[in-house]
Amino acid sequence: MPSQTAAIQWQQFLNKFQNTLWKVLDWIFPPFCPGCNKTGIRLCEDCRSSIRRISDPICPVCGEPGNDSSICQDCLNYPPEFDRLRSAALFDGVIRESLHRLKYNNDIGLGEILAPFLVEVSASQNWDIDLVTSVPLSNERLRMRGYNQAECLAKPFAAMIGKLYAPSAILRIKNTKSQIDLSAGERRENVSGAFYANSSQVVLKSVIIIDDVSTTGSTISECARALKLAGAKGVYALTLARAPIRTDR
């Protein structure tokens, strides 16, 4: 479809332009590595090599690391709406510091540095993807922060794999409290009915959702439910990091 091809090419051009802009800004205001504070580099090789990647055995559905490759108990008890979820690394050390800086310290240039980790995981899955979107923030939280950290990862990811990024494919229609410190059950209840998907953008499409961190997968599962209700034929998910699950109290 020519219009979609043109849109993808435009997004790739903007991504390259933004890359150049970050290089200029880095020359004027030298960055520092989130892991060791080394000046002049966004993520040094030593810290990059210390990142704990997630590998098999994992749950084949949600990607939770485990003792074998069978479906985890949580997916058996509460089958998620997404088809598959994978995460690049454990939420600790350099990855945790990088995401905290991206999310809370306005270091949005880190999205370009971290997105290749998602590309690597995506390439290993051979998913047939039509478009890319990201877990949306509420309007209130977006106004407070000024940007969506998941979008900072999703936009360069989409450009790198040559797929259309559709930021309005899914919207958050209900303000929810932070998922931090909530149990698995509380997380599912907290995000229930919080999202709406645009059927004109997703019907009969295979969609990949990007987020920064997954814990129980409840937020992404609820996004996937909205996408499938809107007619998406498949929903996959990628997160940069995986945090330990806090079980129900």
Notes on the structure:
With 249 residues, the protein is of the alpha/beta class. A 5-stranded parallel β-sheet has the order 1-7-6-2-3, with helices on both faces. A two-stranded antiparallel sheet has the order 4-5. The model has no long low-confidence stretch (mean pLDDT 90). Strand 6, helix 10 and strand 7 (234-242) form a beta-alpha-beta unit. The chain is built from 10 helices and 7 strands. It has helices at residues 2-28, 45-50, 73-77, 93-104, 110-125, 139-145, 149-161, 184-191, 199-202, 218-229, and strands at residues 84-90, 131-134, 164-165, 170-172, 195-197, 206-214, 234-242.
Tally of strands:
7
Average per-residue pLDDT, rounded, comes to 90
Give the helix/strand class.
alpha/beta
Q: In whole angstroms, how far apart are the ends?
A: 50 Å
Helix proportion range = 40-55%
Question: What is the approximate shape?
Answer: globular
Biggest sheet record: 5 strands, parallel
Q: In order across it, which strands form the biggest sheet?
A: 1-7-6-2-3
* Amount of beta strand: 5-15%
CATH top level is Alpha Beta
CATH level 3 topology: Rossmann fold
Reported CATH architecture: 3-Layer(aba) Sandwich
Would you identify the regions where 5 or more consecutive residues have pLDDT less than 50?
none
Please, how many domains?
1
Number of helices: 10
Measured on Cα atoms, how large is the radius of gyration? 18 Å
Provide the succession of SSEs.
HHHEHHEHHEEHEHEHE
Key features?
249 residues, alpha/beta, Rossmann fold, 10 helices, 15% strand
